[in-house]
Specification:
The complex is a heterodimer. Chain A is mainly alpha-helical. In chain A, about 75% of the residues lie in helices and about 0% in strands. Chain A has one domain. Chain A has a two-stranded antiparallel sheet. In chain A, a hairpin with a 4-residue loop joins strand 1 and strand 2. In chain A, helix 5 packs antiparallel against helix 6. The relative contact order of chain A is 0.10. Chain B is mainly α. Chain B has a domain of about 60 residues: Orthogonal Bundle (Helix Hairpins). In chain B, helix 1 packs antiparallel against helix 2. The chains are: A mainly alpha, B mainly alpha. Chains A and B meet through helix 6, helix 7 and helix 10 of A and helix 1, helix 2 and helix 3 of B. Chain B: Belongs to the complex I subunit 4L family.
Amino acid sequence: MNDLTFVTPEINWTVLGMPAFLMIWAMLVLIVDMFTSDRRVLITLSLIGLGVTAALGALDYGSTVSGFSDMLVFDKFGVLVNWILLAGTALTLLIAFDYMPRQNLNQGEFYPLVLFATSGMLFLVQATDLVTIFIGVETLSIALYVLTGFAVPQFKSGEAAIKYLLLGGFAAGFLVYGIALIYGMTGKTNLAQIATELSTWQSTGKALDDPILLAGVGFVLIALGFKVSMFPFHAWTPDVYEGAPTPVTAYMSVATKGAAFAAMLRFLNVAFPALKPEWQLLFGLFAAATMVYGNIVAVAQSNLKRMLAYSSIAHAGYMLLGVLAASEKGISAFTVYLLAYTLTNLGAFAVLIALENRGMPVFELKDLRGLGKRSPLLALAMTVFMFSLAGVPPTAGFASKFGIFRAAWDANLDYLAIIGVITSVVSAFFYLRVIVTMWMRDAEATEPQPTYATASLSLGVLVAVIGIVAVGIAPNIFTDLAKALVLTVAQ
Amino acid sequence: MISTNAYVLLSAILFTIGVVGVLVRRNVIIMFMSVELMLNSANLALIAFSRARAESDGQIMTFFVIAVAAAEVAVGLALLVSIFRAKKTTNIDDVNTLKG
């Protein structure tokens, strides 16, 4: 008889450090929440947790370590994207701090839930195995379903949550079935091992365009495309963004996208370089459709939250270009774009939050009239954000868009770069409309609407503006930095 | 012994039923059940492939899928209860204050 011995699995804390620490910290915050109702304690603890997590990434920065049978990796790309996600989360907490009690959503669970979602995102960014990709996607999704429904006495919030959950579950079904098919054909779930398996197929003359394998790859990409709200899997985006509490919308529009794009990048570049012509063609069409659709429909929106939702669909299209370029240039352009987009979009939502009254959830363009006179600083910040979203120099939006288009052009995706430039021009229309409304139209309301630019929110807006201007004025520093910092993904 | 092909075919049929169920049915509870059917058909495929290769990778993945499905249903049913309290319906077409 064999001796059964229990082998303790080897835990590589360098690799698991960032997501694991944040997850444990979130549980601690949850426990602290039982004993205190002081939200200042909770937000301070949460911000400390985010800071320590970021520091954990800096500790071993530069080394590439794989752990857990190569299911997770700690590399430069992963840490860089994780830092951007952590910064985005910290900004989200700052802009949500005074909003939640104002909307009567004072439950302290908000903070740990955001941290849980972020932990799932960090995990997803570091995942190099189909199993870990699945776990990362689901950890962040389930936390986000709850956050979307956080304002649940308001019916809209519950409706948005149930729509998000049903479609999210639908996408999860595709993800798992795709994983099953890929596993069935290659016998592997590890991304690098799948690539090795496919290259043996090539050398033995076995056809790579096996329909079942292609279906599996397609299913996984549908699921990830759903998370980044790529056309035609975007249908949930406007409803969910409108119904969710505004800080949650802001958070979803940047962080989820960043993490899912990072996973998509690893999935395509590490596991399926052999199928590159196929996915470049197919996803090129999707990217083009996403850019065109997002920008054109955004023109027709009068509700600001919905306009930003469609604009975020359009920006997903631009980020997809960086993923598709599949070159070092493309990947560094993608990280710079993610940074610029995170700062800009969070800032724009922060301005909306500063204007959002209790019991006045509808947010129309005309509500911005006369903002330039009422609170010039807020209007000035919004102007910077809109210029950056439109890609006007000297903001971060311009520098990052330029990098993305150049990367696409150099990767022989010139038709996508051209479509990107044209749609950017279209997008300038609705971003500039916001600026015109703020500065050149007078408010029709006789009594002035209050604004809620509280200390924490102003801090968040200030950080975003400084970041955007810094990236915009000295884009070379950031692109060089990103180029030097990134990239081990491609191998 | 039943061949792997038969299992995979069955899983594909179940998956299709699940997809059609989510797209066609309007009762939220049935839609949840259809999502579960999609996840479980994937489990079946994973286990069949795993058996065919005499490995355990696929079966381990199945445990993760089961755990995630349970978590998702817990959140989903809680939301459904709150919606039912507000509107006294489980029909998704009656839940349409957002313009879709």
